[in-house]
Structure formats: C-alpha cells, structure tokens
Amino acid sequence: MSLAPAPVKVFPAYARLGIPGAINECYVREGVYRRVLAAARSLPQGVGLIVLDGWRPWRVQQYLFETLMEAILGNHPDIAEDELLERTREFVAEPSTSPTGPSPHLSGGAVDVTLCDEDGLPLPMGTLFDEAIPASHTAFYEAKEAPSATEREVRDNRRLLYHTMAAQGFTNLPSEWWHFDFGDQLWAHYGGHPQALYGPAELDTIENRWRRQL
Fold first, then answer.
1. Which residues does the annotation mark as catalytic?
2. What EC number(s) does this enzyme carry (predicted)?
3. What pLDDT, on the 0 to 100 scale, is given for residue 64?
4. Bridge partners of 49?
5. How many whole angstroms separate alpha carbon 22 and alpha carbon 13?
6. CB of 1 within 8 A of CB of 28?
7. What number does CATH give the domain 2-213?
8. What value, to the nearest 5°, has the Cα angle with vertex 112 and ends 109 and 116?
9. Residue range 105-149, pLDDT digits in tens
10. Contact 7, 37 (CB under 8 A)
C-alpha cells in the first residue's frame, strides 16, 4: 500500500480525533492511490482533494462500529436489535478481516475524501465527515425542489466530487458522500463487478515480514 500522493492533501481524521488505534497516515492500495491522484489532477483550477481516511486497523473499525451502535442505542433505548444493527451498518461496516468479505476500509480499497479550496480549506458539503444523519446521504440535496443558494452550492460540490471520483472508476457508498471504493466488496457490489480485487490488508511492517518468512 502507498501513502496518499503529494498533490493530494492528507488529514488523517481519526488520528487527529484521538481514536484508539488510529494511525497518523492515510494508506491505500496502489490502484486506489493512482486513481485518487488522477482525480485530484482532473479537478478545476482552485479546487483540491483532501484524503480523510484510507486503510484502517481492525481495532479502529471495531471502535467506530461499537461507538455508533452505543450512540444510537442511547438515543433510542427501545430500538429492536435488528433495526439497531441496520442503522449502525448504514454508516459503519461491521469489523471483519474475512478473506471473502473484509470491511471495505480494512482492505485498503476504500477512501474517504472531500474537496478543498486553493488554500486547503474544505468546501461546504452539507455535513461534516462521518456525521451519521440522513443529510450525509450523497443524493440528499438532489431531492430539494427549491434549494437555497447554500444548498445549491453543497449540491454542486457533491456532484463535482462524485463525478470526479466516478470518472476514475470509483463507486460511492450512497449513505456517505465522502466514501468511495475501488477494488473492494462495495466496489464489486455497486459497480456490477463479478468479484472484488482486494482482500484484507495489513501494513508491511517488519513484524509482518518476519511472520511471513518464518
């Protein structure tokens, strides 16, 4: 896996938020790396791309899943177990390193991105990264019959991000305007591909090398 390229700004959101186990880099598969770079280079002048997250350790995925589930349960103590699981999965995949179905971010094929201006400041996208609310759905502002000027700006920014990433072969998770996939299970599902290209991934540390060699 590779670090996000220099022309792309990197803000490892989970590390900055102090989430246990989060790493202070954004790693992705090489195929994702090249497509993110191409997407950034294709943006209009004055608009850039910020990578917020890529590959995640299993511990981070578990923390996000359990924390969101607890938050939903705290606000809806009478929610049925199957609905609780469904609402949690809407925004966070269950942690899994299964060879045939790893969590997208655990494969290195998922990447979370947003747009920024020429000074590196994020453009308005309607919600913050990782807000688990209906307004985070990619098409939320498309349904507005009489959008305000601010809503039109958000809608157009989301359109630009979506079409820029799609042009490089990415698919988008409909519940998250920031989440894009290439080569993982979600990419296969939403892109109509017969199978994923990537299974679970680990960083190529000296410890992992020794384990493979021995």
1. 176
2. 3.4.13.22
3. 87
4. 115
5. 9
6. yes
7. 3.30.1380.10
8. 140
9. 999 999 999 999 999 999 999 999 999 999 999 999 999 999 999
10. yes
**Is 189 assigned to a binding site?**
no
State the distance between the two ends of the chain, measured CA to CA, in whole angstroms: 22
Give the span between the Cα atoms of 181 and 174, in whole angstroms.
11
Condensed to tens digits (0 to 9), the pLDDT of residues 159-169 reads 999 999 999 99
* Tokens (6 digits) for 195: 């199978």
179 marked as binding residue: yes
pTM above threshold 0.85: yes
Q: What's the full length of the chain, in residues?
A: 214
Strands 47-53 and 9-10: parallel
Nearest Cα residue to 28 out of 62, 59, 51: 51
pLDDT score of 99: 81
| Number of alpha helices (DSSP H) and beta strands (DSSP E) in the chain | 8, 7
Beta bridge partners of 10: 51
Q: Which amino acid is at 211?
A: R
